[in-house]
TrEMBL record:
The keyword Metal-binding is assigned to this record: no
Cross-referenced InterPro entries: GT117_domain-containing, TMEM260-like, TPR-like_helical_dom_sf
Alphabetical UniProt keywords: Membrane, Transmembrane, Transmembrane helix
Highest classification ranks of the organism: Bacteria, Pseudomonadati, Bacteroidota, Sphingobacteriia, Sphingobacteriales
TM spans (from-to): 6-25, 75-98, 118-135, 177-208, 220-238, 258-277, 289-312, 486-503, 510-528, 540-561, 573-591
Protein name: DUF2723 domain-containing protein
Length: 1004
């Protein structure tokens, strides 16, 4: 037995080491897209991230940040190393889990495994663990500083521990393993809640181990108890404990006149005292179940105490202080994600339902001396409701109708509701992700329901032709795309074999793994109830389910051994099955996935943050809007200390009272953002929503007068709502602001050549039918600033979020500066461009890392470059310079743009964006360079049009006329450009191509 344990430990650690080395080699060197920038910035200085927080994750990542030894450029990398190590340890515990489950089948407790039994058990563990190591979803999370790697480790440890308990359940001190599980679960709440989904499976393990007679009724009862415990921790321990603490504090402060926090202290002492008394009672009365339950609850709560970091740091009011949870009610709102809309779960409206009533609620906020009542989140009643609502979002009504084939006025039936659940939520938002990991992935494009983007495939042409079509004329760009990963169903097949083998040989533990698979997969689908057209793919949420299936991939080795044993010796069967399964799963997965999961040369997320900040003049105010134009900037300022003089103001956060208050804070070297009023006027529950009420005012209203009206407490300036409440409102949409020309000139707000175009008054029309804190604050900031600090918006920011001020926005590349100018010849809706600034940024200021030389460019980076950088920076600069007749600078811009082209073509959008660049290259005698770009793009478009025809032949419903017309427009533009050049041979080729496809698709 000692020999077996030693072998088990050594090979487990070897698998973990292999996985960790792979993750370290392929890890991001800086921040990546989405939440990682926020997490790294917050972990570095222990600040507050978005709800519901991840305090333990931040504290552990802060430890890893110290390994950078003061080199701020390495902090992000070392935090990514933290995720890599967590992921490697996850593989270790997965290996031990598989070997424990395999050993239970192969041996009885008292037996010592033979050499070949040991070998096959170790092979099962290695194949399953390494297969999961290199799956698409897990590898993605393993190389970035996000919560999912550490959350996976918690899940792996807990599931392994319950198997540890199961083997030792008859020992006197066996329950210590259950208490350790409870503690880790409590700790995991400070990372992510996904770990709690193991509780039903744990309940079933305990039932099987503690009962000699197993019945369906008993199993169902155990499962129900597990679900109740899960619900108790998820809502009771995490949320309602805080609600009780808040209620105690309200009573102690408002009724007894004691200080803030006194009720919380009393509740805490009461909770601790109750647990101590209960544990003592259970010991004295010899109630073991009560004892272990209370001890486990105590350790869950003890682990949950990591959230104390949130409250402590919120009181310090650091630069990143999301939701400012510095009192019990703001903390409660933070943990319960009150700012986020709640998806209906068991009963709710259909997407075409109309509101019939409002159920108001009350809550409290912290006042100066006591808690003050305020309106809480209202609940609405609807005229159309259904059980188990899946098609509920009015914002996605058109998509629902199209997907379900409903006419304009047709209401969805319950059958439509279930169809959307099974076909879209289960099929597209889970099944597709599952097959990505074990069958193959078409590419990394986001799937919106089409046949050419983001589907699962197998690599078997006949099968894929049925699934997605178009395989006969698959373009080289799609076939050689590094994100096209094909596994020929092999990992899936091995896993299914392992599943069947497991259920045949050990139904109890097979059902436990199946339960884990269900709760970390399908149950999440049901709970999340996601709407279509998500901002990004959400496969990371289901990694636990893929973890469970990987257990069966390991057990698939045993299935192959059993099959081969019918005709071969044990030795031959074990060696053959090990080699076959190793090549068919881990080796195949790593070979297919390496090129698109290697992030070691990526830096665009960091580069974009740098470029945004360097685009701004000193002491600027930069308005951002979304995650990817905000979090990279936070990372650079809070971690690397770059351009900390620029004050970042996120317009999405500016709708919140706490963020408006934080404008008063100095942030690093950036001065406070001044407002012409006390921020208490926009406090929580005050002026959350100000409607537009048309008062027939046709003249322009001064912005200072309008702000005074919007912030007035006089009921003469308010309107009574149906609820009887009085609200401020927007009485006019035509707004104006006087311009201090001397301040504009003195502060170099406009280029010297534009001084004569500065207007006396800025006049604009407000575009929306309501005013939130964001728009009100934006106008107030601009008024109070009086051109002292430069004001910018990122090019991510939608025009509708600029309060109508986009009329005075001047394009400087990836930022747009507010300038009070009216340029001659500028048409309504046309964006003015500061060509000199554009040129300087495009050619000399911006950094793009290795973008143009990388073997693979991820979809988020491509989206950014194709939708914002190419058109907003390089095409815009090239066009304006040519209009001014400055061909020398236009040439520099065009050459720089070509340097940014990836090694391979990815999209039609890129081909269209480069038409103007090609035109510039021809006009500046860069003939060879222009020809190369033309050939590259024409070849890509031609391949796509051939593919579109093949796809339509296989899947007639997949005929995308919009993309075909788009492709023809690209060909036509290159045809026109070449017509005016001396490149007769290339022109003839392009013209022939254009004519051929135009006639084929348009019949001209």
């Amino acid at each position: 037995m000692k020999s077996y344990n030693t072998t088990n430990n050594l090979i487990g650690w070897l698998c973990a080491l292999i996985a960790t080395i792979v993750y370290l080699l392929t890890a991001d060197r800086f921040n990546s897209w989405w939440d990682t920038g926020e997490f790294i910035a917050s972990a570095n200085k222990l600040q507050i991230v978005h709800q519901p927080g991840a305090p333990l994750f931040l504290m552990i990542q802060n430890v890893f940040s110290n390994l950078a030894m003061g080199d701020v450029s390495k902090i992000a990398f070392w935090m990514n190393v933290g995720s890599a190590l967590c992921s490697g340890l996850t593989i270790l515990f997965l290996f031990w889990t598989i070997t424990a489950l395999t050993r239970k089948v192969v041996l009885r407790k008292s037996e010592q495994p033979t050499t070949w039994e040991t070998v096959q058990i170790m092979l099962a563990g290695a194949v399953g663990a390494l297969a999961y190591s290199f799956t698409d979803t897990f590898w993605y999370s393993a190389v970035e500083s996000e919560v999912y790697a550490m959350s996976s480790l918690c899940t792996a440890v807990v599931f392994w521990l319950i198997l540890k308990w199961e083997r030792r359940a008859d020992e006197p001190d066996a329950n210590r393993w259950l208490i350790l599980i409870a503690y880790i679960m409590g700790l995991s709440i400070g990372v992510h809640l996904l770990n709690l989904l193991t509780i039903p499976a744990i309940a079933l393990v305990i039932y099987f181990r503690k009962n000699q007679l197993i019945t369906w009724k008993g199993g169902a009862k155990a499962l129900l108890i597990g679900i109740v415990i899960l619900a108790f921790i998820l809502w009771g321990a995490i949320q309602y404990s805080l609600r009780l603490a808040a209620s105690f504090d309200v009573f102690f402060v408002n009724q007894l006149g004691l200080g803030f926090g006194s009720g919380i202290v009393f509740f805490f002492l009461l909770l601790v005292g109750g647990l101590v008394w209960g544990i003592r009672y259970s010991v004295l009365r010899i109630k073991p179940i009560l004892n272990i339950s209370l001890l486990s609850l105590s350790f869950v709560c003890f682990g949950y105490l990591s959230f104390a970091m949130i409250a402590i740091r919120a009181h310090a009011d650091p630069p990143l202080n999301n939701n400012a949870p510095d009192n019990v009610y703001s903390f409660l709102g933070y943990v319960t994600r009150v700012q986020y809309a709640k998806e209906p779960l068991l009963k709710g409206q259909t997407f075409d339902a109309q509101v019939t009533g409002v159920k108001p609620s009350e809550t409290y906020k912290k006042g100066e001396h006591k808690y003050e009542k305020m309106s809480g989140v209202s609940e609405y009643t609807f005229d159309k409701e259904t059980l188990f609502p899946r098609v509920y979002s009015s914002k996605h009504a058109d998509y629902y109708r199209s997907y379900l084939g409903l006419s304009a006025n047709e209401s969805p039936t319950f059958a439509d509701n279930l169809q959307f659940f099974f076909k879209y939520q289960l099929g597209n938002m889970y099944g597709r992700y599952f097959f990505w990991n074990f069958a193959g992935r078409q590419n990394d494009e986001q799937n919106y329901g089409g046949y050419s983007d983001g589907n699962w495939i197998s690599g078997i042409k006949a099968v894929d032709n049925v699934l997605v079509g178009g395989q006969k004329d698959l373009p080289d760009a799609m076939r050689s795309n590094p994100s096209r990963n094909v596994y020929y169903f092999l990992p899936l097949f091995i896993g299914v074999m392992g599943l069947i083998w497991h259920f045949r040989r050990d139904k109890r533990f097979a059902s436990i793994v199946a339960l884990l698979f269900f709760f970390t997969g399908v149950a999440i689908v049901i709970y999340l109830n996601q709407t279509p057209i998500q901002p990004r793919e959400r496969d990371y949420a289901y990694a636990g389910s893929f973890y469970a299936f990987s257990i069966w991939i390991g057990l698939g080795v045993m299935a192959v051994v059993d099959f081969l044993r019918r005709k071969a010796s044990m030795r031959t069967s074990v060696i053959t099955s090990g080699l076959v399964c190793m090549f068919a799963a881990p080796i195949l997965l790593i070979s297919e996935n390496w090129d698109d999961h290697d992030r070691s040369d990526r830096s665009l997320a960091r580069d974009m943050g740098y470029n945004y900040l360097m685009s701004c003049e000193p002491n600027a105010i930069l308005f951002t809007y979304a995650d990817n134009d905000t979090f990279p900037l936070w990372y650079l300022q809070e971690v690397e200390g770059i351009r900390t003089d620029v004050r970042i103001v996120n317009l999405s956060y500016l709708t919140s009272h706490w963020y408006v208050r934080q404008l008063n804070n100095q942030v690093n070297e950036a001065a406070p953002v001044k407002l012409p009023f006390d921020t208490s006027k926009l406090d929580e529950g005050i002026r959350d929503y100000l409607p537009f009420v048309d008062r027939g005012i046709n003249d322009y209203v001064n912005v200072d007068t309008l702000l005074e009206f919007l912030l007035s407490g006089n009921r003469v300036n308010q309107v009574e709502m149906q609820s009887g409440e009085w609200f401020n409102y927007l009485p006019a949409k035509k707004i104006q602001m006087s311009v201090d020309k001397e301040a504009v000139i003195a502060n170099n707000v406009v280029p010297s050549a534009w001084k004569d175009y500065v207007v006396d008054k800025m006049q604009w029309e407000y575009p929306q039918n309501h005013v939130s804190r964001a728009e009100l604050s934006l106008m107030a900031i601009i008024l109070e600033n009086n051109w002292q600090r430069p004001i910018y918006f990122t090019n991510y920011t939608p025009a509708e979020n600029m309060a109508g001020l986009d009329k005075y926005i001047v394009d400087e590349g990836i930022v747009r500066r507010l300038m009070p100018v009216s340029l001659p010849g500028q048409e309504d809706g046309q964006l003015a461009g500061n060509v000199e600034k554009l040129y300087q940024n495009a050619v000399h200021t911006f950094q793009w890392g290795k973008y143009g030389s990388m073997n693979f460019v991820d979809v988020d980076s491509r989206r950014l470059m194709e939708n914002f950088i190419y058109p907003d920076v390089y095409v815009q600069a090239s066009q304006l310079l040519k209009q001014q007749g400055d061909l020398a600078k236009a040439k520099e811009v065009a050459i720089k743009a070509v340097e940014l082209l990836p090694k391979r073509s990815y999209s039609l959008n890129e081909a269209l964006s480069y038409t103007d660049i090609v035109d510039t290259l021809y006009k500046t005698e860069e003939i060879e360079l222009a020809n190369n770009v033309v050939k590259r793009n024409i070849s890509f478009v031609k391949d796509y049009l051939d593919y579109a025809e093949s796809l339509a032949n296989d899947k007639p419903e997949a005929l995308d006329t919009r993309k075909i017309r788009y492709s023809l427009a690209v060909l036509e533009m290159y045809d026109r450009i070449l017509e005016g050049t001396g490149e007769k041979e290339l022109y003839a080729q392009v013209n022939k191509t254009f004519t051929h496809y135009r006639d084929k698709y348009l019949g001209e």
